[in-house]
Amino acid sequence: MEIRNFCIIAHIDHGKSTLADRMIDMTGTLQKREIKEQTLDMMDLERERGITIKLTPVRMNWKGVQLNLIDTPGHTDFRYEVSRSLAACEGAILLVDCSQGIQAQTLAVLYMALEHDLTIIPVLNKIDLPAADPERVSEEVMKLTGCKKEDILLISAKEGRGVPDVLQAVIDRIPQPKLHGTGAGQTRALIFDAIMDSYRGAVGYVRVIEGEIKKGQKVHLLGTKTPFEVLEVGHFAPKYVADETLSEGQIGYVVSGLRDVKDLRVGDTISSSPELSMLPGYKQVQPMVFAGLYPSEAVDYPELREGLEKLSLNDAALQWEHERNSALGNGFRCGFLGLLHLDIVQERLEREYKCNLIVTAPSVLFEVKLTSRNPAEVVRASLLKTDEPNVASISNPADMPDPSVIDEIREPWVKLEIVCREKDVGACMKLVQDRRGINKAMQFLDADRALLEFEIPLQGIVLDFFDHLKSASSGYASMSYDHLGYRAGDLVKLDLLLMGEPADALSTVVHRSEAHDVGAVICKQLKEVLPKAQFPIAIQAAIGGKIVARETVQALRKDVTGYLYGGDVSRKNKLLDKQKKGKKRMKMMGKVNLSQEAFLAVLKR
User: Fold this and answer.
1) Structural domains in the chain plus CATH codes
2) Does the model's pTM come out above 0.90?
């Protein structure tokens, strides 16, 4: 039987999941009663938010050809999911909204597909909308991909118009998988995703590169050097359907029965012999944003650990390690691809694993070059880079060493692409420049839309940049970014002091020119959320020993003179003096408890 492996790539909300629904419907993969909107979005979270978070495979049959489709996410935080899908396919449908045209993420995923040498089928969706402009968008797509106008398909995924033509184009244009013809004697399959099943252990989603995998076969994981017996193999329809074998070129699942979530890793190779060479997997993903996750109650620590172990099995971009904080106790320092990724992980831990969490303010990864002859004396040995022994990788500002032993601090920079209307160019440029961005290029996609290219510190865009960009452009602009590397800058650690005591969990690293403004905003926000006590609470932002901003939460004032019914004023003063001395004593021994609101105040600066 002929096989075609392909995926759908597009910007957010351009109709990937809806097109997948129509394909499943037209190929008869599911019965009418089983099909609902966004059939392949299995998680409740995906349905509620209307976004795809996890890649989802499905096998369909059309005119005697086996079609293996992988539906991919559109958000820039989940681009790693897209890269894994591309490695398992020979072709991709590039879906473009006919009313919005090319967006920033469209460009990003197209470049990734071209890097993997995939056949691209350009498709314009939503031609049924009143605002649709197929002529203009076709010109954009032709200019971008170099295709001919007759190669572009016009469809309405919602109505099903033109979808049979897309299925036919997949058969006609996308090449068959290359067959090695080595037979069952030599088997190699690439794991492009994995999940943890409560009853059957770790389940790997695989693309068989050569040979075949059978139920009961003894196989090896070449990366982790782990042998196991295949309990079941099958394909996605889109639920699991068991088969006798998975043949060369096919996409399916393998039930391993492995109970240790670390054994079955994305990018590893399943092989019939431990002597065979590994397949080229995926480059190790680098987390962009780091935050501390702590249980609200110390007894919930084991549940949080178990939840993170299971989540990180099928989310290769999630990295975590144990961390202890003086204010919050035991928790984990976690690395994410962006704020949406952090938000999704937090919500999944709370829903699926019943964890009550406190999340610290997000920060990026800094490289700190040290002047000390023995760097292990000033920072933990685990933070030091192996290739540069005098450079430490620090994601938690609390780990930042004394300024006297720092030679320079390097921060991550990214290449930022923004697609916006011509009249929003000025507002977008000002927004980026206010965050230390450098304008590199500008080109017009058509008469009204421009593509802006910038270089900007990652720290400038991870917190609230996207919200401000949407406000500046009335919701029209879109963005995408790629890691560029590390550059030295005039960066300082901004400490937050509560009653003179540093609150490590609230400290942050900022550019010196922004320290006063950021400190003033954080102090003001904390003043609003910290509960009043019987004594005044001083909130200070400091760089080393220099205070750059301050606010004071005034003490609660109890009316101690309320019961007096007259007489000399000295009676009243005596009671007020007594109260003043009591407040002074309390101030010396009083403590400030940090709540989740305090961390959110820092986040929303």
Assistant:
1) 2-173 (3.40.50.300), 183-271 (2.40.30.10), 289-362 (3.30.70.870), 367-489 (3.30.70.240), 493-603 (3.30.70.2570)
2) no
